[in-house]
Design goal:
Layout: E1 9-13, H1 20-33, H2 36-41, E2 43-47, H3 53-62, E3 68-71, H4 88-93, E4 98-101, H5 104-110, H6 114-126, E5 130-135, H7 139-143, H8 147-159, H9 164-169, E6 171-174, H10 188-206, H11 208-213, E7 215-219, H12 224-231, E8 238-241, H13 248-255
Parallel strand pairs: 1-2, 1-8, 2-3, 3-4, 4-5, 5-6, 6-7, 7-8
Helix pairs in contact: 1-3, 1-13, 6-8, 8-10, 12-13
The structure holds 1,3-dihydroxyacetonephosphate.
């Protein structure tokens, strides 16, 4: 039997943008623009700042919107003396579906390690949510020919000790650091090559079935203008979008890649 096709997932990582009023307005605009055909073809998630989550949840649930709520980060413990941190249990209570773990900004600016990303991935799964595990190389690493080594190491570490069935349902986002917020996008061929490497690492650690099912996003200056080509690659199943997810029309333009 042929394996089920992977449903594309387009995720908007708002980073530290939009207060809760702006968040409500953006989700309402998005829903106004997106139609049933879009939702039939593509899964969509939005990842507002923590302070917006409850407001956005209320809008999504009041209108039964087919948009998944996402978070940008969490701690791996359920509770405790961790000033400023947010528990995965609290996110689950808000009906959060996806949680980003190991974004390069968390790794580079806030010292998140591979081990922390692995613990978070397990905690997110334990609460019935789906991790979006990020990986990606710096420009120096790319120029030194170390991209595959860096990305493979990050993926292996993130998946360590997670069983194959759980791996098959999660999402991995390949985000070359030099392409984030710079307007520089990896060429579709380069992005495809690294995403194929990611899938082969998943096959190695969790088996062929998990590798076939896991969804791999590309992130880094994705826009409507480059989305069709990127999403057309065999190992790219979606996009993790920063800047272009902050404006409803721009984000909807990316979701509409499915129209070709
Ligand atoms: P940009 O789309 O702004 O490059 O950001 C990508 C990103 O980091 C999404 O997580």
């Amino acid at each position: 039997m042929a394996p089920a096709p992977r449903r594309p997932l387009i995720s908007g990582n708002w980073k530290m943008h939009h207060n809760h009023f702006e968040a409500i307005s953006l989700v309402q605009k998005l829903q106004y623009i997106l139609n049933d055909e879009d939702h039939d073809a593509v899964d969509v998630s939005v990842h507002p700042p923590f302070t917006d989550l409850r407001s956005v949840q209320t809008v999504i649930e009041a209108d039964d919107l087919p948009i998944a709520l996402g978070a940008q980060h969490c701690h791996w413990e359920d509770k405790g003396a961790f000033t400023g941190e947010v528990s995965p249990a609290f996110l689950a209570k808000l009906n959060v579906t996806y949680v980003i773990a190991g974004h390069s900004e968390r790794r580079e600016l806030f010292g998140e390690t591979d081990d922390m990303v692995n613990r978070k991935a397990k905690a997110i799964l334990a609460h019935g949510m789906t991790p979006i595990l990020c990986c990606g190389e710096t420009l120096e690493e790319r120029e030194a020919g170390a991209t595959d080594q860096k990305v493979s190491g990050q993926v292996r570490a993130a998946l360590d000790g997670i069983d194959a069935e759980a791996v098959s349902g999660l999402v991995i986002a390949y985000e070359p650091i030099w392409a984030i917020g710079t307007g520089r996008t990896a060429s579709a061929d380069d992005a495809q090559a690294v995403c194929a490497t990611v899938r082969s690492v998943v096959a190695e650690v969790a088996g062929a079935d998990a590798a076939q099912s896991v969804r791999i996003q590309y992130g880094g200056s994705v826009k409507a203008a480059n989305a069709v080509e990127l999403m057309g690659q065999p190992d790219i199943d979606g996009a993790l979008v920063g800047g272009a997810s902050l404006v409803a029309e721009d984000f909807a333009g990316i979701v509409r890649f499915h129209q070709g």
